[in-house]
Write a structure and sequence with these properties.
Among the domains are: about 100 residues, no CATH class; about 90 residues, no CATH class. The protein is globular. By secondary structure, the protein is mainly α. It has ten helices and no strands. About 45% of the residues are buried. Belongs to the mitochondrial carrier (TC 2.A.29) family. It is found in: Mitochondrion inner membrane. It holds the Pfam family Mito_carr. It comes from Sphaeramia orbicularis.
């Protein structure tokens, strides 16, 4: 990312890699209930069509959270948290932690990176991350989507059981269900999120609107979260529906999108927009602010370790 002054020691790729994963886990811990509410809102139209009822179970972000707490207990808001943290450590480490390295790769080590180079770097790290973390994303979505019934029966009882059950019932390919829409989504998310953050932060520092500190990181992260939500919501809804579907429900991600359009109309692609924005906006703020501080702290610790006096 931009904003490092000459007197600062440049964070190493390892610092960025582990710092990104740690910051993403912190952000997930804080914003996970919003993500769970988003998933429930995104799939509820699908459930209504399957059952032949038009009764709205969830209404709005906080209405969804309140309904879940009332009917399933507060712990339901953190269904899939373990898989979510596994996902962030493997996923964010690659897509965010390797972004600067990928920029340098495309510019052959030079400092100047244009918009095309940044977009290419974002697309590349986003696609690479999916290849590593897709099974954890599938399990996370399945956990978030499952509703605890009156007798306590659940689709999956533990994270490891979910991995084993999906692999047994749907084959190993089931763990990579929705991989293509997820690659598409994360290429879009990475471009919107990282490139927006990178460029806004660069402009803020270039025109001396703020210094490279907390308000600057907050402003750039908030803008990145809004841009990402607007651009990525349609793909995100299709990804969620497809990954949560049983074997044979949809023949492909495109079939899932066409079924949504035919049964629910174009507005279905923006179901859960408010929780998506609340979640992505708050997630970006927490993640980028944490990431900048972790990078700075780890770099200073590394600098002190190498030159204690």
């Amino acid at each position: 990312m931009v904003g490092i002054t000459p007197k600062d020691m440049v964070p190493s790729p390892a610092v960025k890699f582990f710092g990104a994963g740690t910051a993403a886990c912190i952000a997930d811990l804080i914003t996970f209930p919003l993500d769970t509410a988003k998933v429930r809102l995104q799939i509820q139209g699908e459930s209504q069509k399957a059952k032949g009822t038009e009764v709205m179970k969830y209404r709005g972000v906080f209405g969804t959270i309140a309904t879940m707490v009332r009917t399933e207990g507060p712990r339901s808001l953190y269904n899939g948290l373990v898989a979510g943290l596994q996902r962030q450590m493997s996923f964010a480490s690659v897509r965010i932690g390797l972004y600067d390295s990928m920029k340098q790769f495309y510019t052959r080590g030079t400092e100047s990176a244009g918009i095309v180079t940044r977009l290419m770097a974002g697309c590349t790290t986003g696609a690479m991350a999916v290849a590593f973390a897709q099974p954890t994303d599938v399990v996370k979505v399945r956990f978030q989507a499952q509703v605890r019934v009156a007798d306590g029966e659940r689709r999956y009882n533990s994270t490891m059981e979910a991995y084993k059950t999906i692999a047994r019932d749907e084959g190993v390919r089931g763990l990579w269900r929705g991989c293509m829409p997820n690659i598409t989504r994360n290429a879009i998310v990475n471009c919107a999120e990282l490139v927006t953050y990178d460029m806004i932060k660069e402009l803020i520092l270039k025109y001396d609107l703020m210094t490279d500190n907390l308000p600057c990181h907050f402003t750039a992260a908030f803008a990145a979260g809004f841009c990402t939500t607007v651009v990525a919501s349609p793909v995100d809804v299709v990804k969620t529906r497809f990954m949560n579907s049983g074997a044979g429900q949809y023949s492909s991600a495109i079939n899932c999108a066409l079924t949504m359009l035919r049964n629910e109309g174009p507005t279905a692609f923006y179901k859960g927009f408010m929780p998506s924005f609340l979640r992505l906006g708050s997630w970006n703020i927490v993640m980028f602010v944490s990431y900048e501080q972790i990078k700075r702290g780890m770099t200073r610790a590394q600098q002190y370790w190498e030159s204690p006096f």
